[in-house]
Design a protein that fits this description.
single chain, 236 residues, mainly alpha, 9 helices, 72% helix
């Protein structure tokens, strides 16, 4: 079902991230030229867009998972939260496939794929998955009873990409803008991931306590609401 909405569904799932990287590289070269980077900009974008798209897709797919799969709830062994877990697993699988494709293409074209600290990059992705699941569960429960919440989140996601250090690093920005963008928890995840990937970047702007707070708080609230409202969700 993830790919069968249209005949081009599978194509765009894998082609979209490549187009995002290609377009941003072209814009950067045209406006700023090729010089000035102390890291491979194409690899930087590929890493960030892969992480951001995974978060965005997990969140967007989770929001409507209860209503879209309510026919499955006639089976007693299927719980509403299972549908979110299943969608998260699908998105993780798709993201893993895209990462493999990016690595193969990068190796073929000779991009800089040397990783400073691979375990920490992997931890960043795993933590981002948990954060996306936590936030997705909270929004899914809320959206089931108040659909306007899901619509608001979708609109907000359009602007979130520009404020989450996806195609830039926080250290490139003025101090006032840095302070503002660091209120966004997703910025910390992006900074952690590319900070441990590239030798010329670091995680000095990452607040791990802030990340823990934003991971556990929506997870706790989402699980509490879900436990109290599970029967109502099934009966809708």
């Amino acid at each position: 079902m993830r790919f069968s909405v249209s005949k081009s569904g599978l194509f765009w799932t894998f082609f979209e991230p490549f187009m995002q990287v290609f377009i941003m590289v072209i814009i950067k070269v045209v406006i700023f030229g090729k010089a000035g980077d102390n890291f491979d900009f194409a690899a930087f974008l590929a890493l960030n867009f892969t992480a951001y798209n995974m978060f965005r897709n997990i969140l967007s797919k989770s929001m409507g998972s209860f209503t879209a799969n309510k026919a499955l709830f006639v089976y007693k062994q299927v719980k509403p939260i299972d549908t979110i877990i299943a969608r998260v697993m699908v998105e993780v699988f798709v993201t893993g496939t895209i990462i493999v494709a990016f690595v193969l293409i990068g190796m073929y074209f000779g991009f800089d794929l040397n990783v400073k600290h691979l375990p920490m990059v992997a931890l960043g992705f795993l933590w981002l998955i948990l954060f996306a699941f936590s936030f997705g569960l909270f929004v899914a429960v809320s959206n089931t009873f108040y659909p306007s919440i899901g619509k608001t989140i979708n609109i907000f996601m359009i602007f979130l990409m520009f404020g989450s250090a996806v195609f830039y690093s926080i250290e490139m920005l003025p101090t006032q803008i840095q302070t503002l963008l660091l209120y966004n928890p997703l910025t910390h995840f992006m900074e952690m991931i590319h900070g441990y990937y590239f030798y010329t970047l670091d995680d000095s702007f990452v607040d791990y306590n802030y990340m823990i707070l934003w991971t556990l708080s929506p997870l706790y609230i989402g699980l509490v609401f879900y436990r109290k409202l599970e029967e109502r969700i099934i009966s809708l």
